[in-house]
Specification:
By secondary structure, the chain is mostly helical. Helices cover 70% and strands 0% of the residues.
C-alpha cells in the first residue's frame, strides 16, 4: 500500500459540459433532423416551391419540434446540474481525504520523532 494520499483517493468523474450548439444538436437531432444547426441556412432552398399547405404542415411540425426540444432541454439541464453538484461534493470529499491523510501522516511522523527521542 502506498503512502501517497493522491494514489489512495478515488478519481473524480468530471461531468461532460457541451457547448450550446452541441446541446441543441444533440437534442434536436432526435426530434427533427431538418432543424440541426448545420441545416438551418439551407432550409429555404430545400423547401423552395413547396405549396402553402405543405409549408403550413412543415411549420406545425417545427413548432411541435421546438416544444419537444424545450421539454428535453429542461430535463437535460436538470441532469447536468445534478451531475455538477455531485462533482462538487466529490471534489470537496476528495480534498478532505487528502487533507486528512496528510495530517495523519504528519502526526505519525511527529509521534515517531517523539518516541525515538
Amino acid at each position: 500500500m502506498t503512502d501517497d494520499p493522491k494514489a489512495q483517493a478515488k478519481p473524480l468523474k468530471k461531468p461532460l459540459i457541451l457547448s450550446g450548439q452541441e446541446i441543441y444538436d444533440l437534442i434536436m437531432g432526435g426530434i427533427e433532423p431538418e432543424l440541426l444547426s448545420g441545416n438551418l441556412d439551407s432550409l429555404s432552398q430545400q423547401h423552395e416551391g413547396e405549396t402553402p399547405q405543405t409549408k403550413a404542415e412543415r411549420m406545425q411540425r417545427y413548432t411541435n419540434a421546438f416544444k419537444e426540444y424545450k421539454e428535453q432541454y429542461e430535463k437535460y439541464m436538470e441532469k447536468l446540474h445534478t451531475e455538477v453538484e455531485e462533482y462538487k461534493k466529490a471534489a470537496m470529499k476528495y480534498i478532505e481525504t487528502l487533507t486528512d491523510k496528510k495530517e495523519d501522516s504528519a502526526l505519525e511522523d511527529l509521534e515517531s520523532a517523539i518516541s525515538t527521542s
